[in-house]
Amino acid sequence: MKFPLFLLTGSIAVLFLLSPILQTKNFKTQAATTSSKPNIIVIMTDDQTMDSMSKMPLTNKLIGGAGATFANSFVANSLCCPSRATFLTGQYSHNNHVFSNKGTDGGYSALTDNSNVLPIWLQVAGYTTFHVGKYLNGYGKVTGPAPADPASVPSGWTEEAVGWQDSIYSYYNYTLNEYSPGVAPHLVTYGSDNNEYQINVETTKSLDFINRHANDSNPYFMWICYFAPHGDSNAGKVVAANQDLHTFDNEPLPTPPSFNEADVSDKPAYIQNLNNGQRFSQSDINDITTNYRNRLDALQSVDRGVQAIVTTLQLNHQMDNTVVIFTSDNGFFHGEHRKSEGKVLAYEPSIRVPLLIRGPGYPVQTISRPAVNIDLAATIVDIAGAKAGRTFDGLSLVPLLKNQPVSSWRSDFLIESDDSDPGHIFTGVRSEDHKYVEWVDTVGKITDTEYYNLNTDPDELCNMTYSGKKECRNVDIVNLYPARTRLHQLQTCKGESCH
Fold first, then answer.
1. pLDDT the model gives residue 5
2. pLDDT tens for each residue of 41-95
3. Contact by Cβ (8 Å): 25, 216
4. Cα–Cα distance, 3 to 432 (Å, whole number)
5. What is the DSSP letter of 151?
6. Which parts of the chain sit beneath pLDDT 70?
7. Which sign does the torsion angle of CA 377, 499, 385, 69 carry?
8. Those residues with Cβ within 8 angstroms of residue 428's Cβ, 6 or more apart along the chain or in another chain
9. CA-closest candidate to residue 418, choices 492, 343, 339, 344
10. Which of 62, 180, 194, 288 makes an SS bond possible with 310, Cβ 3.0 to 4.6 Å?
11. Nearest partner of 494 among 100, 89, 88, judged by Cα
């Protein structure tokens, strides 16, 4: 069955529009799930900025407003596949070996020990697992003459509706590989009409799963990977649902001090060479503005999807025994440091991501301590009472979520990238008050360095390792050596040595 969803935003409208699904269940008057373990739902967007959360009022209210909002949430490797691999393993890229989206060190095939990942550990702990949407880049693609086999599915999922090959990069006309107990993997193509807009279909499948498992004695884990606000590879732009087109046509583009940065002489060669070494023209700025507005439009379907998920949990009397996590796989540029779009850099717009978590016993609060995506698997395993098969590089966020006293917390974390583009090979260390980055060439020789005082220069305009920019003071060597030493420690860290 396929249902038209989310034409209105009010709760009554949501209930009405979801009624074809909701009628498939007889809701209990008591909590439906009898397990003492909570259900866990992770909602992950694709390429979403921190700034865009201001245009998602339903998500802010229903997750952040009912739990924790992390003011300082980051990803260690700001790229789709490495970030998702870190979510599945709780490890930095240098430990799970996924650095890029493709190539010998990237994509679905690069993840070592694919049968030793988060959903497997949760299944062993008694969880029914479900994934919908995008998975690791390259899933469903093969090399050589043999056709891709839909029967080859990611490990650990009881049910799945996983994006097939590169079709997942389209909001319409995409294919999912679907399977469940008793139903073999099979390809289903969607998007022939407006009712099959990808975000809405992903929401519909999520609601169906919640409804079908409302009365189970076992808990469930669901990973919803929304495509928005990623660009559509066929359309060449971000495509919003019809009802959301032009919603933000008058929204001004944020222009922080780093936007269209006037002087990038202190930046690495990669940044200096962007846009042929020129600042943006007005035409360029118009294009960046349109892209920004399109992304906000597309996120409205996600915002309504979050509302529908929470409403369905409440109707099933599951909300009091469910943890809901909302985040993104990486940030995105909209003209900062002359980067018109994209990610995969160590600057704040690229590595900062939203993180909201609500759950039983979690008070409403804003948490300032830094969270990194290496923490998510550790947190979920802790919540589920599961046992991990890998050594986590991250920390469980549960003590912070419960507002328990924490005597110590990480003081810094690693930023890393070894993307297939030679211009994106660097590692860095970010602490509360500084960031130090080393760029290397394809043979590992350091070509550029960056050091920023984030207290006095939060927009990263003054690289203090460069003395040619007169307003930038050359860094005190005494301050630089500890950062360099710590970076070199983190580059090969594992487990507790990463904290």
1. 41
2. 999 999 999 999 999 999 999 999 999 999 999 999 999 999 999 999 999 999 9
3. no
4. 47
5. T
6. 1-35, 142-147, 420, 422, 470, 473-479
7. negative
8. 346, 414, 415, 416, 435, 436, 437, 438, 450, 487
9. 344
10. 62
11. 89
> Which residues share a beta bridge with 336?
259
Instruction: Identify the pLDDT of residue 145.
Output: 59
Nearest to 296 by CA among 263, 247, 259: 247
- CB 100, CB 84: distance < 8 Å: no
* C-alpha of 114 from chain center: 20
Residue type at 152?
Answer: S
Q: Specify the pairing of strand 39-45 against strand 355-358.
A: unpaired
Which token pair is 231?
A: 């660009």
* pLDDT value for 57: 98
Which tokens hold the place of 59? Answer: 């998500």
DSSP for 249-274? TTPPPP--TTBT-S--TTS-HHHHTG
Residues with Cβ within 8 Å of 55's Cβ and at least 6 positions away in sequence, in order, are: 248, 251, 296, 299, 300, 303
Tokens of 116: 């030793």
pLDDT for residue 142: 66
Burial tier of 148 (Cβ tally within 10 Å: 0-12, 13-18, 19+) = middle
Q: Parallel, antiparallel, or unpaired: how do β-strands 159-163 and 128-133 relate?
A: parallel
Residues 226 and 133: beta-carbon distance below 8 Å: yes
Domains by residue range for the chain, with CATH: 28-411 (3.40.720.10), 413-498 (3.30.1120)
Q: Which residues contact 442 (CB under 8 A, 6 or more apart)?
A: 422, 425
Q: How far apart are the first and last CA of the chain?
A: 48
Q: What is the pTM of this model?
A: 0.93
**Run of H or E including 426:** strand 425-431
**496 CB-side CA count, 13 A:** 1
Element (H, E) at 234: none
- The amino acid present at 329, given as its one-letter code, is D
How far apart are alpha carbons 424 and 143 in whole angstroms?
Answer: 25
Q: Say if CB 288 and CB 280 are below 8 A apart.
A: yes
Are the CB atoms for 101 and 79 separated by under 8 Å?
yes
What is residue 164's predicted lDDT score, i.e. its pLDDT?
A: 94
Pull the structure tokens for residue 267.
């930046």
Residues 6+ apart with CB under 8 A from 280: 260, 288, 335, 338, 340
